[in-house]
Design brief:
The chain is mostly beta strands. The chain has helices at residues 3-13, 80-86; strands at 21-25, 28-32, 35-37, 41-48, 58-66, 69-74, 97-104, 110-125, 138-144, 148-150.
């Protein structure tokens, strides 16, 4: 093997740190978030029993279900996320948005991007307020969506 191939292989195998990521909506960085969870896909399966076959079931692939995405972020002066949740509160006309979750390397280069399709907020949770705690106030936003791709 050549030295350059070994170097590329070693670099590709290095795990990516998860402490640098942001969310972009319409190509504009909306916020850097403290935590993101729910980037999860699950394929449903159907188990079929066949007469005379007693040592196994046939397992067929079904639909793919995605989890809601949960974002936690420090409270800022901006009300954009709050306003997005409030849209449709009284008339049911929620605003669906395509957005991206961008994972950056230590040097700031983009390493992975999850492109979320048709997301809309389904749950907002305000910060826990406690005078004995000097930590940053954290809000939580849960977003339902139509799926995502990885680039």
């Amino acid at each position: 093997m050549t030295k350059s191939f070994v170097t590329k292989l070693a670099k590709a195998a290095d795990p990516i740190p998860v402490f640098k990521f942001w969310v972009t909506i319409g190509g504009i960085v909306e916020a850097e978030f403290k935590e993101c969870s729910g980037l999860r896909l699950e394929r449903k399966v159907e188990e079929i029993e066949s007469g005379g076959v007693n040592d196994h079931w046939y397992v067929l692939p079904g639909r793919v279900k995605q989890s809601n995405i949960v974002l936690k972020y420090g409270v800022t002066q901006s009300n954009e996320i709050w306003n997005w949740y409030q849209t449709g509160l009284y008339d049911g006309k929620v605003e669906r948005k395509d957005f991206s979750i961008v994972l950056r390397g230590i040097d700031g280069t983009v390493l992975k991007t999850w492109n979320i399709v048709g997301g809309f907020p389904v749950k907002w949770e305000g910060p826990a307020l406690n005078v004995e705690n000097s930590q940053v106030a954290i809000e939580t936003l849960e977003i339902a969506h139509h799926g995502f791709t990885l680039t």
